[in-house]
Specification:
By secondary structure, the chain is α+β, with helices and mostly antiparallel strands. It is built from 10 helices and 5 strands, in the order ααββααβααββαααα. It has a 5-stranded antiparallel β-sheet, sandwiched between helices. It is globular and about 50 Å long.
């Protein structure tokens, strides 16, 4: 990526992360915007996001691929890993070299799962505003020395911008809607998983490939990923639409 392209992408990222008061805001869609920009700008292998619910429990909300999703779920299930430490400590964790034997003692099950998935480095960045932490972004890389401090500083700046956007949106809602924001996000994730499965079966492609086609189609049509997935599950969008290249996809 040329420097001017990177600068343009960075400016667009901060603008999009600030745009949370529009109609039709969906938390999962917004977090996908965050993960898309971070994956491109930070040049990392995978990204996952967990949020803290009303009972202070970690909830796996979204990720760049199924592999990252499984690692976020593993952290929740095993009750160990960088995201848990990040949320409890209210600070960045890592970069951590997962090939080091000491990690087998700190996060034994998570480290084994991450290494099995092909990752050699990880870090967790808090979704934090002052003393309030609402979640964490987990970044992964296949190389142990690839997560440089400058890379993570940029990642933290993007995470901070996303946190401000999420909290700004929460303040614009009434109490019931604030409490329901995370539940709505989980419902969105279920719709996305169902759409991935349905589209994958119709086109005979892997779930990750189905997910990439759904995201590309949503971007091309400038529509909500959540709303698109609901329509796919309900059979309102023919599978043939997703066989086209994004620049050839026609309006719904």
């Amino acid at each position: 990526m040329a420097q001017w392209e990177r600068d343009e992408r960075l400016a667009r990222a901060f603008l999009e992360l600030a745009d949370t008061l529009r109609d039709g805001f969906y938390l999962v869609d917004f977090l996908h915007v965050l993960t898309d920009h971070m994956r491109e700008l930070l040049d990392v292998t995978e990204i996952g996001v967990v949020m803290v619910d009303a009972q202070d429990r970690l909830v796996d909300v979204t990720a760049s691929t199924d592999t990252a999703h499984q690692l976020e779920e593993a952290q929740v299930e095993f009750d160990e890993g960088p995201c848990k430490d990040c949320c409890l400590g209210h600070e960045q964790v890592g970069p951590v070299d997962l090939t080091r034997p000491a990690l087998a003692e700190r996060w034994p099950r998570f480290t084994k799962a991450a290494r099995t998935a092909g990752f050699a480095a990880t870090a967790a960045l808090p979704l934090r505003l002052r003393e309030e932490v609402i979640g964490a972004v987990n970044v992964f890389h296949a190389r142990p020395d690839a997560l440089h401090p400058a890379t993570l500083r940029l990642g933290q700046a993007l995470a901070d911008a996303a946190t401000i956007g999420i909290l700004h949106h929460r303040l614009s809602q009434d109490q019931a809607e604030r409490v329901g924001q995370l539940q709505t996000a989980l419902n969105s994730r279920i719709a996305i998983e169902q759409a991935k499965g349905a589209l994958g079966a119709r086109l005979d492609i892997a779930p990750n490939a189905a997910f990439e086609r759904l995201r590309a189609y949503a971007r091309a049509q400038r529509t909500s990923l959540t709303q698109l997935c609901l329509r796919v599950v309900e059979g309102q969008v023919p599978a043939e639409e997703f066989a086209l290249a994004p620049d050839r996809q026609r309006r719904l």
